[in-house]
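User: Design a sequence. Structure:
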């Protein structure tokens, strides 16, 4: 018996590789979180900017609260079982007037995991629609394993390597339209991407990337895990702590180590390395 989703939604996720939209909170609650985010950008510009948007949940309580939101965790449990940890997070922000986009890709390609059966909730903190550059999914592509990607390092592509999977049947793409406070969830191997933001407002998504069952191991590089639900991880795994308030010193130091590890994993074997 699922905790939050219906059995039909669970089957749909396994069949199509994503679910959307899921109501997480009211629009006004989401706007209040967005305001905290924008205040953090003003107060701590060196810790949260276009080149530093990974793992901000490790230093800001309002993002940590989202990572431990009861509905988020119940949805994740319905999809991957009751013992899981969080690998990381990314703030995907596309400002108006930029040409930033996300090419067709599969998240798991460069994450270096022993299994790619993991899930990413993507929480909308602003309207996410065709005009603002919402995510689009190619249903069912999570069943075809990882396909070859070209690392383009294209300037406006906000993925680390600008990696692109070729020969995508775009005619089957589904746009995930979300109001602030809704979320989608997607599988580690689904092909997805997003177009540029053509509107006059920011498009802000917070991706909890990703929740992974505790049996999954890191086999490229080294990472630390944030235990979230269920049984303890294996002894020997390095564990992360939750922040106490915003920007506490220990949390800031911890995030710096995590982001360095992330870079080493995500750019493993790459010909170039960018600052994000
Ligand atoms: O926010 C976007 O436009 C893309 C996000 C994405 O690729 C992801 O969450 O895996």
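Assistant: Done.
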């Amino acid at each position: 018996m699922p905790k939050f989703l219906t059995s039909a939604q669970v089957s749909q996720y396994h069949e199509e590789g994503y679910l959307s939209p899921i109501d997480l909170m009211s629009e006004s609650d989401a706007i209040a979180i967005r305001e905290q985010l924008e205040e953090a950008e003003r107060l701590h510009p060196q810790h949260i900017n276009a080149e530093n948007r990974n793992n901000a949940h490790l230093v800001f309580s309002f993002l940590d609260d989202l990572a431990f939101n009861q509905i988020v965790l119940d949805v994740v449990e319905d999809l991957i079982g009751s013992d899981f940890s969080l690998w990381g997070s990314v703030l995907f922000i596309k400002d108006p007037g930029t040409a930033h986009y996300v090419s067709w890709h599969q998240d798991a390609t460069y994450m270096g995991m022993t299994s790619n059966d993991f899930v990413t909730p993507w929480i909308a903190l602003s309207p996410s629609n065709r005009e603002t550059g919402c995510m689009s999914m190619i249903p069912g592509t999570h069943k075809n394993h990882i396909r070859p990607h070209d690392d383009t390092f294209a300037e406006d592509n906000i993925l680390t390597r600008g990696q692109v999977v070729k020969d995508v049947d775009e005619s089957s793409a589904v746009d995930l339209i979300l109001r602030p406070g809704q979320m989608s969830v997607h599988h580690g191997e689904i092909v997805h991407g997003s177009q540029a933001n053509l509107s006059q407002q920011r498009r802000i998504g917070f991706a909890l990337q990703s929740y992974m069952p505790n049996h999954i191991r890191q086999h490229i590089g080294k990472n630390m895990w944030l235990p979230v639900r269920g049984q303890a991880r294996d002894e020997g795994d390095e564990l992360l702590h939750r922040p106490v308030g915003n920007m506490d010193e220990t949390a800031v130091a911890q995030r710096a180590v995590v982001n360095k590890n992330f870079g080493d994993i995500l750019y493993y074997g790459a010909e170039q390395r960018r600052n994000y």
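The chain has one domain: 7-238. The domain at 7-238 is CATH 2.60.120.620 (Jelly Rolls).
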